[in-house]
Write a structure and sequence with these properties.
mainly alpha, 4 helices, 0% strand
């Protein structure tokens, strides 16, 4: 695991993030500002704005930290041992049987307590 970078951000990083946000908003604005233009032109404008904005944001210290976090998460995800189909089916059946058993138990408990309450209060 890599050492954590300092959490302080500089004015340049703030400006990069603001520029990235501006580019993304600009792409979205262009989509709605030109309603008569073809969707085949407007959608790529939004996607280009999003891509350029993400690229600009990735150059900031927060963006690099996020990129490092995603790389670490990807490494950790590869270490996960996923259950096989048979294990998943067995576990699912156990959970379903337990849920049904507990449902029946609470239904019977409710009936018993209702009977006791009716017996004590004389109502019902």
């Amino acid at each position: 695991m890599e050492a954590k970078q300092s959490g302080s951000s500089s004015l340049l990083d703030t400006m990069k993030l603001m520029l990235a946000l501006g580019v993304v908003v600009g792409g979205i604005f262009a989509y709605y500002y030109f309603p008569n233009a073809s969707v085949l032109l407007r959608v790529p404008a939004v996607l280009a704005g999003l891509g350029i904005g993400l690229a600009i944001a990735a150059t900031s210290s927060q963006g690099r930290q996020f990129t490092d976090f995603m790389r670490g998460a990807r490494v950790e995800l590869r270490k996960v041992v996923w259950p096989k189909r048979e294990e998943t089916l067995q576990t699912t059946l156990i959970v379903l049987l337990f849920a049904i058993t507990m449902g029946v138990f609470f239904w019977m408990l409710d009936l018993g307590l209702g009977w006791v309450v009716r017996l004590i209060t004389g109502r019902g």
